[in-house]
Amino acid sequence: MKYWRRDGAEIEEAEFLQLYGDRAYRLIAEDVVGDKKVTTVWLGHDFELDMGWHDKPKPFGTMLWPDAELRWETEADAREGHAKVVGDLRRKYAQRTPKGGP
User: Fold this and answer.
1) C-alpha dihedral, 2 to 17 to 73 to 31, nearest 10°
2) Burial category of 86 from C-beta neighbours within 10 Å (exposed 0-12, middle 13-18, buried 19 and up)
3) Local structure of 91: helix, strand or coil
């Protein structure tokens, strides 16, 4: 299996394990919108690449609990994708809330 740092550089397993043990390094962003939790993290690996499901590593992931997972190639893509998911959820929840509501 191959591993990557947040900057995209390929690394050895020992460095991956050290970085993976640091929650602050793994966490990119986390938000709660309504009853949905959105978490974007550095995963450092991509088993889907190993399976041949795509041709570039996507070592970042956004989880929309419990509904979906999105994968990203770069930290910038992950941050942008997280912001889009959160923005879409906020618009969705704003449409549900009656004017003058909570």
Assistant:
1) 160
2) buried
3) helix
| Cα 16 from Cα 3, distance rounded (Å) | 6
Answer whether 0.85 is exceeded by the pTM: yes
Rounded Cα–Cα distance for residues 24 and 49 (Å): 25
Amino acid occupying residue 53: W
Q: How far apart are CA 60 and CA 45, in angstroms?
A: 8
Enter the tokens of residue 92: 């969705």
User: Which residues are paired to 3 by β-bridges?
Assistant: 11, 45
Q: Which amino acid is at 19?
A: L
The pLDDT tens digits of the residues spanning 70-100 come to: 999 999 999 999 999 999 999 998 888 666 5
Q: What is the pLDDT of residue 1?
A: 87
